[in-house]
Each structure stands twice: as C-alpha cells, then as structure tokens.
Amino acid sequence: MFVLDLIPAPTLRDVADILFLTFVTYQLYVWFRETRALRVLIGLLVLGAIYSLAKMWGFFLTTRVFQVLWQVLLILLLILFQSEIRQVLEKVSPLRFLRTRKRSFHGAFVKSLIRTVFELADEKTGALIVLVRNDNPDEFIHSGHTIMALPESSLIKTIFSRHTPAHDGAIILSQDYITQMGCVLPLSEKKGIPEHYGTRHRAALGISEKTDAVCIVVSEERSEVSTVTAGEIKTWEEPEHLAKQLKDWLGITESPSVKPKEYLKLAFVKNWGAKLGALAMVSVAWLILASQQEVKIDMIAQVKHVNIPAELILGPHSAKSVSLTLSGSRNSIKALKAQGVGVYVDLERLSSGAHQIMLSAKNIDLPLGISVNNVRPKSIRINLEPLKKKVR
C-alpha cells in the first residue's frame, strides 16, 4: 500500500500532457517506421531510460558519462539524419497546411495518361512517372534531362522504349508538362519490401517518402500498373478505378467528406497496437519522471515551543502556527503530508515578557530532499509569564 501511495496521481494537465506526447510519439513512429531512423530512435529511448534510472538511483559516474555522450550524439544525429529531420520539420510546418492543392492537371490528361500506362503494361514496357503536387522534388532528383513537352502518349512510349537511352529513368510531370526525363530518384530504405518489386518501385517509394508526389510504376516483368503515394504501393487492374483515384489525388475531384463519427472511430481503431504502445511508453516515462518532478506546497505548521524555563509559562497571544511554502520531489512532498512538519522555537534563554523571534529554515525540521521556500510571518510573537505558585 505504501508503494501505491507514492505513485503520483495525474492531474487534468498531466493527462493532456500524456495524450499530446502520445500523439507526437505515434506520428514519429509513422514517419520513421521501417527506416534506419526508427532503429536509432529506439536505441535513443533505451539510452534515455538507462540515463533516467541512473539519475534516479544516484549513480553519479554513469549520469556524468551520459551527460557528455548526449552532446556528442546530438551532433552525430544532426549530421546523419539531416534529410529525415528536414522531412519531419516540413510535415509539421504550419505553412504546409495553408497551401492549396495545385489543380493544373485536368481530366483529359488523366484519361490519356491512364490509357498510356496500361498500354505500356500490355507491351511489357517498364515505366516510372512522377506527378508533382505541392512539394518540389528537384533536390532529390539526380541526373536527368530538362525538357518541356506535352505528355502525349506517343512521346511517353518513346521515352520508355528499350532503345531510348533514358528509358531506365523516371519522367517528371508538373503542371501538364513533362519537365524532366531519365531522372535518377532516391531509393527507399524501407525494410520488408517484397522481393518482386524492383528498382523502379524502390525509387518510387523513395521519392514518395520525401515529397507528396504521386508515382505510377509499370512493371515490365509482371505487366502490372502500380501507384505509390506516401510510401504505400497499390496495384491496379481496372483503368477506371485508377483514373478516379488519380483525379482525387491531383485535386481534380473532391474527396467524399468523412463524417466526424467515422473519423473519430478511425482515429482510435487504425493502428491501435502502435497507438497503445505509444501511450504505454509515454505513461511509463511520465511515472518515472513525475516522481522526480519538483513541486511546491503551502501548508500550516504548528509552532512547537521547547526548553521553556522552569519558572515561566507560555502566555496568551503567543504564535501557535505559521504558514510554510515547501518544495521537493513529488514523492517526497506526498510522503511529507503524513508526517507533518514542526517549527521548533527554543525559549531557553528568554526571560519573562514579550519577545519577537525571527524564523528561518533552521527552525524547521524537514526530511532530506525537502527545502523551505518561504515562511510567513518572518517573525513570531512569544509571551512568557511567571509561573504563579499556588497559595496554601
């Protein structure tokens, strides 16, 4: 029971804090899952847990070593994961949500493009087409040739013909034009990608992880058409279904609105295992850190008069209590309530009459780890009167 009593009870503010950090933790997991960055984040969490335990148990040397290591690790992480960090910062930027979708692509273009890619699949001709939306992919594109041409079916087939030098690269479509061809895209570092997906699929995954582009991949081995968005691959068999989805992605048609009830249900049910894991991890971290959190408390303490001279007694109007402001760890403060606090005033050298005694932390008996922030009043009045002897 004593251990349970020391477990801090979360306030409404603590609950909001836990839920917010759970959301942040889950989003970081979604953005970094199946990448090398996720493994590093897990390693950092383990090191952070070891550091917290060492600090809580008072391991001075271990704590000091970790404090030095954190500074070195921070610099290394900024160097090794600068692209991932930039990607996260771009995703949380408020300016990203203020932008509107570009609606440069039109329905006729989509219909022509879909017909072309399915014809390429029937001809067993591989292709990789990147449709630019809001994010500019130029910084992630290597090599390639800059052109400015209408995306006609014959031109696209010519570019991806086996006899064309640029057929292994990707073409970039932006605002109804082919702007680049023969481009080399960054390959995805995801783990667990099926082996039958080749370089084109990995390149499409790579660019979709770094931008909001829509990629269309035609597999020459399996004669299938796939799309890649936000790191997710989907294969299409019906041109009509792909055309409808592509129009939605490009902002040509509006997506059906999701009802608030369905949205809330999806928010809790989708990936519930990862969400529960994030909540559990944040809750454990809160329990560890909350017990060490410094808190303040105001309390009334009784004045305890000690060493009263034998011939004197405590007179009326003497101070009986004072107000204290104490600080310490949450657990120490919680345990302190049951013990009570005494303010001791030594009257040994006082004579009969009224006295004004200044109070300080020396007058207050406190457990280790608790400190006095304020005493009110700063001085108290003590009245001592002669002891009246009974007359026989």
What's a concise summary of this model?
The chain folds into 3 domains: 2-97 and 259-290, no CATH class; 107-249, DNA integrity scanning protein, DisA, N-terminal domain (YojJ-like (1, 3-Layer(aba) Sandwich); 294-386, RNA Polymerase Alpha Subunit, Chain A, domain 2, CATH 2.170.120. It is 43% helix and 24% strand. It has helices at residues 2-6, 12-32, 36-56, 60-80, 82-92, 94-98, 107-122, 153-159, 199-210, 239-249, 260-269, 272-290, 330-339, and strands at 127-131, 142-149, 170-174, 177-184, 214-219, 224-229, 232-236, 294-306, 312-314, 321-329, 342-346, 353-358, 364-365, 371-376, 379-386.
Largest sheet: 7 strands, mixed
The Cα radius of gyration reads 35 Å
- The fold-level CATH name of the largest domain is YojJ-like (1
DSSP strand content: 15-25%
Low confidence ranges: none
In sequence order, what are the helices and strands, one letter per element? HHHHHHHEEHEEHEEEHHHEEEHEEEEE
User: What is the CA-CA span between the terminal residues?
Assistant: 57 Å
